[in-house]
Each structure stands twice: as structure tokens, then as C-alpha cells.
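Anyone up for a design puzzle?
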């Protein structure tokens, strides 16, 4: 063991004895080592504290988080403001594109001109909740038009939704009108006046004849008339002065609602006057007399005659088939050059449905200058009587025939038209043509003051029936609108075309229907029979 220790001690080099300079360097190294150890210890403790510490936000993370939240809030604000801005621009300029098949929402140039020159504010009250309007197919179309109107008027038009089930007192301010107000009605209101519309007024309700022998028909929505109806209503509530049309009552006169609407939609005030008790207003623009159910008295006739001659009056007088004798009225009409005959006018060729459905020829276009008159311009005058032109000039009066039946027409004499059992031509019937419309004029000058009046006598009171005015294939509506404009030119009616959903059906005269039947059925059958005959003959040769 001692030998091992000696060998180990021998192998170890003896340690040199330190000098003074080396001692200082050794002290410095020890200090550096101690500092390094303390730094590592502090670093280790700091790392341990971080590991043991609970999670939290540093200042930098808090700054980044604040910026992120701010950006999100700013982004949401931009989206909200953009949505508000787009909604405002849409309301102000109606930024929507009409891609419907026939441009249902197209605004006419006439309407644009009216809207762009509005000077007064107009409120459109829709008597439904906004949710009900938006979710309804037909109301929503009307709402789209009103939004367009609001944009084009520069905000002059406002839209107000009123739920009258929650606010029933609202309609109490609109009771001085003959038109019915109910849930779903439209009230177009200006500081001057208001007008009531119903949803059906904004659409074209077409009539289709299902049985021509009985005049049976069905109705359906065929187009949009919102632009025409709404623009006319705006013109009505914005006009300073409106003319008045008077419908005479008192002798069971009959008028159709559609015929009356031709005037109200052309911005006339509508008024009824019972001729038995009341005078005709001096300022009436036009007076309408339906086919009377009884004769007038001389006093009543004098009221109408005075209006015509002293007030420069304008009268539309409708006659037609009737079993009532009116000798006093007939005598007065003779003074104006018109004879009323007990002749039922029929036509087997130029008629629609049956011989009673006479189609009139337009002889004089002075009362319908803007109407396109052609072979398919059908003014239907069912149940007509014959008017006799007594003279053309006499004692300040002139009489001019403007409508007549065709040369294929004929007439049957009657005392009671209900006794006529056959409409076919028979021996003893008178041959046409017959006058169906005569325009009478009166002019005079007293002390340098000219006065005058005009009366249009029409031979069919059925020509103003809703069914015939509503059929776009007929010219009854357009012709009567032209007559109204001719008699009183103080109103400039808005004429805007209806936007149709589909093409309308074709209307044919009786003669045209027979021709088509021959071409499409008879001739092919004859050719087929002849072909079979030739084939059989050749086969047996």
C-alpha cells in the first residue's frame, strides 16, 4: 500500500509556488466566476417564477388586444354605416334593376315629368302594416312603384303604413267621399285634397267571354296599371282646379262603375244630380244622361236645354233598346236633328257574339282624332236602336253622323223588344246601314256674345258596360276617352299604357270566324275526302 502511495506521489508534479501577480489574477477570476454563478442563479430563479406565475396580459399584449378590438368595432361601424347609406341611396334614387319579363315596374316619361315638377308634398297612406305589404305579391308591386315615385320626386312623396285594426280612428278623417275605405286601401293625400284607391285599381282586370251566345265571361288579372292609376291620382290631388262631370238620375238611369271611372281617373269631380228636383250646375264641364226608364217632363227637359244653350254645355246622351215610351224626350231631340226610331239594329257579318253585338263603323274622326282607326278597331254597340238624321243644318243647329252600322246590318221594328224571338234576317226587315251616333251642335250670338253647346247622342247604352270597357280587344274605352277629351279640353288626361302579363286573345267578327272555320276545317276535310276517293279509284284499276 505504501508502495502505491509512493508511486502516485511520484507521478504528481509538484505545485509551483504562487507569485504576487498571479495571486491578483486568481482573485479576479474567482470574482468573475462568482458573478456568473449569481447571474445563472438569478436567471434560474426568474425562469422558475415565470413557470410558477399565473397567466396574464403583458403591456404589449394589452396594446395589441386593444387595437384588434378597435379595428373590429370600426369594421362593424363601417358595415352599419354602409348599410344605412345604401338604404338611403336606394330610397333616394331607387337603385334596383327591373328584370321582370315585361318590365312591370317601368315608369313612363309622362309620370317622370309629373314627379320631377312636383311643388307640393304628397303622403301615400297604405292601410296595412309594412310587413303585410312586403309579404304580399300584389301589394309589394304597388310598394315598389311608390318607392320609385318617392325617389323621382326628390322626397316630395312619403309613404305611411297604417294598421287600422290597431288604429281604427285613422279613417275618420276621410269620410267625405263616396268611395269605400277599408283595410288595404290607398289614400293619396295632398294639402288640397285626397283620393282613395283600392288594390284592384292598380291592375288590369281582363274579361274573357266564355259563351258568346249568352255573353258569359270570366275575369282575371292580366296586367299592371299601377303607373297610370297612381300618376292620375297624383295629378288629381295636386291640381288647383278640377272640372265636374254630372251624371243625371231620377228616371232609373243606369251607369257602370267603369264608365264613371273614365272621368274620375281623368281628374273630374264626380257629381250626381236628380233632374226631378235639381237644376244642372252651371259650371258642369260635361253632363251624362243614361237611357231613361221613364219620360221627362217639359220642365226637366228645359233644364237640360238651358244648360246646353246658355252655359256652353256638353252632353253625352245614351239611348238604346227600351220598352218605355219617351215622347217628350223624343220631340226635344228632333229639335236637335235626331230622330229616335223603334228599330232594333242587328248584323250577321260585322258583329261579335250574335247579331245583337253590332260593331259600329266610325264615319267621322273629329271626336277621336288620336284614335288609330283600322279594320280591327271594334267599337261594340250591343242592343242598339236606329237614329234618324232629320237634317244637317237648321236654326242655329247642326247634326253630323259619326257612327253607323255596316251595310250588312238590318233592323227589326218592335213595340216591345222582348217580343222579338229571332235575330235572323226575315222578310220585312229594313236594310242598313243605320246611324248609331250623331253629334249635335248649337251656336248663337246675342249682343255680340256667342253661346253654344254640344250633345253626342249614342244609340247603345250597353256600350258603356263594364264588360266591354274592360276588354282590351275592343275600342270602347279608348273611343269614349277621346269623346270626353273632345267635349271638354280643359283637362289633360294622363294616357299611360298598361303593362300586360301575356298577349291578349284575338277578337273576331262573325264573318271572320266563319272564314277561319272554312280554311282550317272544311277545306282540309274536302281535300282529305278527295284524296281517299282518288286512292281507292286507282287501287281498283
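Challenge accepted. My sequence:
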Amino acid at each position: 500500500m505504501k508502495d502505491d502511495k509512493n508511486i502516485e506521489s511520484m507521478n504528481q508534479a509538484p505545485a509551483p509556488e504562487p507569485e504576487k501577480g498571479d495571486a491578483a489574477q486568481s482573485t479576479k477570476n474567482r470574482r468573475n466566476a462568482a458573478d456568473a454563478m449569481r447571474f445563472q442563479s438569478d436567471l434560474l430563479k426568474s425562469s422558475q417564477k415565470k413557470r410558477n406565475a399565473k397567466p396574464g396580459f403583458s403591456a404589449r399584449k394589452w396594446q395589441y388586444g386593444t387595437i384588434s378590438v378597435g379595428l373590429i368595432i370600426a369594421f362593424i361601424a363601417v358595415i352599419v354605416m354602409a348599410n344605412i347609406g345604401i338604404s338611403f341611396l336606394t330610397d333616394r334614387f331607387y337603385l334596383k334593376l327591373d328584370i321582370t319579363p315585361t318590365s312591370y315596374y317601368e315608369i313612363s316619361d309622362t309620370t317622370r315629368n309629373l314627379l320631377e315638377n312636383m311643388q307640393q308634398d304628397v303622403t301615400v297612406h297604405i292601410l296595412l302594416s309594412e310587413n303585410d305589404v312586403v309579404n304580399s305579391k300584389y301589394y309589394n308591386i304597388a310598394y315598389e312603384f311608390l318607392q320609385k315615385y318617392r325617389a323621382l320626386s326628390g322626397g316630395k312623396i312619403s309613404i305611411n303604413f297604417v294598421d287600422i285594426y290597431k288604429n281604427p280612428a285613422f279613417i275618420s278623417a276621410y269620410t267625405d267621399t263616396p268611395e269605400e275605405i277599408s283595410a288595404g286601401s290607398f289614400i293619396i293625400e295632398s294639402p288640397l285634397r285626397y283620393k282613395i284607391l283600392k288594390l284592384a285599381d292598380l291592375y288590369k282586370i281582363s274579361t274573357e267571354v266564355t259563351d258568346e251566345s249568352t255573353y258569359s265571361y270570366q275575369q282575371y288579372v292580366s296586367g299592371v296599371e299601377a303607373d297610370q292609376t297612381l300618376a292620375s291620382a297624383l295629378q288629381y290631388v295636386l291640381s288647383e282646379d278640377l272640372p265636374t262631370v254630372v251624371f243625371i238620375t231620377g228616371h232609373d238611369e243606369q251607369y257602370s262603375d267603369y264608365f264613371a271611372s273614365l272621368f274620375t281617373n281623368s281628374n273630374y269631380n264626380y257629381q250626381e244630380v236628380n233632374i226631378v228636383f235639381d237644376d244642372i250646375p252651371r259650371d258642369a264641364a260635361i253632363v251624362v244622361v243614361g237611357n231613361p226608364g221613364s219620360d221627362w217632363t217639359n220642365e226637366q227637359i228645359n233644364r237640360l236645354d238651358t244648360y246646353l244653350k246658355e252655359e256652353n254645355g256638353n252632353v253625352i246622351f245614351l239611348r238604346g233598346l227600351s220598352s218605355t215610351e219617351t215622347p217628350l224626350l223624343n220631340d226635344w231631340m228632333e229639335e236637335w236633328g235626331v230622330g229616335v226610331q223603334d228599330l232594333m239594329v242587328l248584323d250577321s257579318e260585322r258583329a261579335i257574339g250574335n247579331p245583337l253585338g253590332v260593331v259600329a263603323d266610325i264615319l267621322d274622326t273629329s271626336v277621336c282624332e288620336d284614335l288609330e282607326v283600322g279594320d280591327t278597331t271594334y267599337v261594340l254597340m250591343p242592343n242598339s236602336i236606329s237614329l234618324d238624321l232629320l237634317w244637317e243644318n237648321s236654326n242655329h243647329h247642326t247634326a253630323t253622323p259619326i257612327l253607323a252600322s255596316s251595310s250588312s246590318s238590318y233592323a227589326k221594328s218592335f213595340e216591345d223588344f222582348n217580343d222579338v224571338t229571332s235575330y235572323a234576317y226575315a222578310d220585312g226587315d229594313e236594310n242598313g246601314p243605320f246611324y248609331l251616333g250623331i253629334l249635335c251642335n248649337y251656336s248663337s250670338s246675342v249682343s255680340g256674345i256667342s253661346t253654344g253647346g254640344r250633345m253626342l247622342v249614342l244609340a247603345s247604352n250597353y256600350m258603356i258596360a263594364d264588360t266591354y270597357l274592360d276588354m282590351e280587344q275592343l275600342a270602347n274605352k279608348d273611343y269614349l276617352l277621346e269623346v270626353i277629351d273632345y267635349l271638354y279640353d280643359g283637362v289633360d288626361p294622363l294616357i299611360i299604357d298598361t303593362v300586360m302579363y301575356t298577349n291578349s286573345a284575338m277578337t273576331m267578327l262573325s264573318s271572320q270566324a266563319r272564314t277561319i272555320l272554312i280554311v282550317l276545317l272544311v277545306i282540309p276535310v274536302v281535300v282529305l275526302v278527295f284524296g281517299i276517293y282518288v286512292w281507292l279509284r286507282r287501287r281498283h284499276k
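A detail worth pointing out: The CA atoms of residues 185 and 199 lie 7 Å apart.
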